[in-house]
Write a structure and sequence with these properties.
With 193 residues, the chain is an all-alpha fold. The longest helix is centred in the middle third of the chain and has 23 residues. 69% of the residues lie in helices and 0% in strands.
Length: 193
Amino acid sequence: METSVSLLERLTDRPTDPDWQRLFDLYQPLLRAWALRAGATDADADDLVQDTLTIVIRELATFDRSRAGAFRSWLRAILANRLRGFFRARRSRPVATGDSDLLDRLDELEAPQSELSCQWDREHDRHVAARALKLVQADFAAATWQAFRRQVLDGAAPALVAAEMGLSQNAVLLAKSRVLKRLRAEVAGFVDY
């Protein structure tokens, strides 16, 4: 396996098409869900996601990622601005959805300490962690992933996992350590841990 460099670092330094695809795969569902909440149609939500990620791609080299949660906040602000501009350009109200007043609350979404902003942060971190788990799973042998999953996701004790899998406890702990190291590297700058 190659040396783990965070996706954010790869995108900033020498991005490849697979890196951009990984960013899209990571963020498309989250951004789309928030656009739909604001009242965008399915097709418009897809356009808003594309617009948002296009800005991220264009501006990432100048993005200051020095403080915790900076990317998450930056992405939230870009999305809020794209939503505001989208509805303003159409001079229309969004279609009523489960959170139909989100459009009225876009300023709150941008405010760092607001409840809506905190909701975004929580959903963002859960979403990115879950997507990152899926994305890095392919980087590991099935036994390594299973040992990690049983310990971290299922909460099983290392000794139990070792007995279940016919491995040494040390091998089980190493599996956990290797997967966590890879996950941390992958989400560095995206999620605070």
